[in-house]
Amino acid sequence: MGTYSSEFLHVLSERGYIHQCTNTEGLDKLALKENINAYIGFDCTAESLHVGSLVQIMMLRWLQKTGHKPIVLLGGGTTQIGDPSGKDESRKLLTKKTIASNKTGIKKCFENFLSFGNGSNKAIIVDNEDWLSSLEYVPFLREVGRHFSINRMLTFDSVKSRLDREQPLTFLEFNYMILQAYDFMELNHRLDCKLQMGGSDQWGNIVNGVELIRRTTSEETFGITTPLITLSSGEKMGKTANGAVWINSNLLSPYEYWQFWRNTADNDVGRFLRLFTELPLSEIVRLESLKNSELNEAKKLLANEATTLCHGLKAAEDAAKSAKETFEKNGFGNELPTVSISKHKLENGVPLIELLVDDEYGLNLVQSKSEVRRLVRNGGIKVNNQTVKDESKILNKSDSTQNKIIKISVGKKRHAIVKEQ
User: Fold this and answer.
1) DSSP run (H or E) holding 127
2) Residue 177: CATH number of its domain
3) pLDDT in tens, 141-190
């Protein structure tokens, strides 16, 4: 990407955050000359963001660390429509009540990553419902819609890919890119915002905003996108066999978050240390050169650093301690996922297969009953570190330790605790 004079672009470039930029030379000069107000938008489609959004969150963090002002834009308005970017089908329309609840959860995702307040580079959170909900349709079409060419809009990937696959794209969704461009113009007007950042699938939407501002005010603004982050296996970042890797601790415990990073594939360690920690690059170069079992120490450091950023130092230390107890000493780590079962129920017995699969218990360590049977046949399930040999194994009080707990292990990496209530 070249050498940059501003600390902001220099850091983003050397750590691998930049995929595209509308005018890198112009943005570099601006970042050197003044503090930039920059934003990233997050639609409120779930009650938490997951690690698929972590690159964008870390960009906001580095923006702030290099002296600039992060603006978190919540899509209270645009969520009511649904972004077609990267989607094979229309999103389910959410109720306003659900969107409001999701907004509350998403705000929590930023608490440990950004510093909020009234200072010049303190982060702020705004909501595009504040201006989108009051738009009048005909004036909006006249003042904003006239700057958009349908011919050009049809060439953007978010639209073209859906049409190429002959999948329906509603008129509602088609409006999304115009509204996102309007968001940038509104933030430029209200907060002197001069930079929009986002994932690579947002490039067309970001360029639209830059051009809308230029056409209406003649001011130059800028856009940056990040590369699509996939695992070395080719899977999308943020998803695992057990579901999304949520940022909020009420949906995913700090221990499970720590485990996600500890289980990073060898080929991803260096890249993830650059993107998801603040370790110096010289240290990262040393760590990624480690081989075999020594590389596990780099993975533990990645897990510690990433978990500290998201959940705080104590949560990271507790997770690391539990992992050591569980994996290295065959113990019962305090931070393991836990389910409580009544004394009465244990006396009657609980089928292990139901405990592992059924939503009633909430462990979800295994996806299906057939997978449980296969794992048992291959010696892949343990109770209190003892291999289970019977597919119809019933857990009861005799399996409880003196502390009235039962440790369940699936493979080498998935563990949970059953507590007698």
Assistant:
1) strand 124-127
2) 3.40.50.620
3) 677 877 777 777 777 776 777 667 777 676 667 777 889 999 999 999 99
227 backbone dihedrals φ, ψ, rounded to 5°: -70, 155
117: left (phi over 0), alpha (psi -120 to 50) or beta: left
Q: Judge contact between 38 and 71, C-beta under 8 A.
A: yes
Beta strand residue intervals within 138-245, DSSP E? 193-199, 222-226, 239-240, 243-244
For the cut 90, the answer to whether the pLDDT of residue 316 exceeds it is: yes
| In the predicted structure, residue 344 carries a pLDDT above the cut 80 | no
Domain boundary among 328, 346, 380: 328
Range of the domain at 353: 338-420
pLDDT for the residue numbered 12: 97
d(C-alpha 207, C-alpha 288), whole Å: 36
- Is residue 402 predicted with pLDDT exceeding 60? no
pTM of the shown model: 0.78
End-to-end CA distance of the chain: 58
Residue type at 291 in one-letter notation: K
**Single residue among 305, 328, 351 that ends a domain in this structure:** 328
Q: In this structure, what token pair is assigned to residue 10?
A: 């220099």
